[in-house]
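May I ask for a sample protein chain and its fold as tokens?
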Amino acid sequence: ALRVSYLRSGGHDPAILEQLLQLQLEATVLEKGTAGPHRERMAVPAEPPSTGTHGLDAALLAVELENQRLEDELLALKVRREKRAYAGSRAAQRHTELAQLQAEVGMLRCHAEQTRPWLHLPVFPHPSAPKLPP
């Protein structure tokens, strides 16, 4: 978990990765509960481990963790895209519903105007006074 956290936060120092790998190996040996002499030997190494194999292991581990980070980022992008698509489809659906309601309101207005003739005032010419004789 410590190594993953280090890599995800941008760490890439090979020496630190090597130390983290050694700590993980020691933890694995301790968890398995191997025999006493081997356990003591792991606690105080007689000579530093060669960096050849462990360096490759650390590099491979770093690549695997970077792949995992990229996969997580890709998944997050896919989720965001799906959320945007869902929000867009919901907005389009609401727009369609609004247009249908507006059309229905228009039809109801027309119907109301046709069923209430008393609202329509007859158009008469403006009243004017009769012309006076000359």
The radius of gyration is 41 Å.
